[in-house]
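The data layer described in this paper is built around a simple, fixed record for each protein. Because each token names a local backbone shape, the row as a whole describes the fold. We quote a single record here, exactly as it is kept in our systems:

***
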Amino acid sequence: MTKLEVPTYAPAELDGDLASLRGDCARMAPRWAPPTHAGPGPVPPSLIHGVTVPARSARLLDSMSDYGD
């Protein structure tokens, strides 16, 4: 049986500052693989058709402020 070495990391502080957050991200980055391909590109507006919005939803959005509530 092979003994695997598992690195131990200090737990992240919940009340840490930006520097500790950046350090946590730097330690996690090598474990994440980049996507093998990019997602689909933008769709031209001329291809978007048949979208309907219920009147109730349109009224709800119309009554919301421009910058959030």
